Amino acid sequence: MCLAVPGRVLDIGEKDGTRMATVDFGGVHKEVCLEYLPDLQVGEYAIVHVGFALQRLDEESARQTLALFEELGMLQEEFGDPWEQAAAQAGADSPWPFADGPFADGPFAGEATAPQHAQEEGRL
Predict the structure, then answer these.
(1) Does pLDDT of 90 surpass 80?
(2) How confident is the model over 15-33, as pLDDT tens digits?
(3) Is 0.70 surpassed by the pTM of this model?
(4) How far apart are CA 88 and CA 34, in angstroms?
């Protein structure tokens, strides 16, 4: 799902001739294009969709929306780790292969690397 999420502008700069900002979405910081809101200032809130600030928003409305999104788990869905989300949807207890190192609890458990294992078996 792709949400339009309110965020607070932390800093503003320019990247390759484009006005950009670092925006805080309830603890997650992302780089956002400000071309549609050229007068947006540090400390102000905006609704952001797919990396573009689209509309200025007052602080109270932004906080209420962020709290609601958090309560519904939508911030995690939007900004969370896609590998962890996929593992959770699959019903896995741990996000293999990233739980305790490469290939932990997977088909190559204890091996240094998958290519090394494949080479030893004559597959590479």
Answers:
(1) no
(2) 999 999 999 987 889 999 9
(3) no
(4) 35
- DSSP for 28-45, written as a single string: EEEEEE-TTSTT--TT-E
**Amino acid letter, 14:** E
79-113 burial by CB neighbour count: b if 16+ within 10 A, else e? beeeeeeebeeeeeeebbbeeeeebeeeebeeeee
Would strands 5-15 and 18-25 be described as parallel, antiparallel, or unpaired?
Answer: antiparallel
CA angle 4, 7, 8 (to 5 degrees): 160
User: Is residue 31 a contact partner of residue 24, using CB atoms and an 8 Å limit?
Assistant: no
Contacts of 118 by beta carbon, 8 Å cutoff, 6+ apart? 124
Query: Can you read off the two tokens belonging to residue 8?
Result: 């607070």
CA distance 45 to 55: 9
> Do residues 6 and 45 touch, judged by C-beta distance below 8 A?
yes
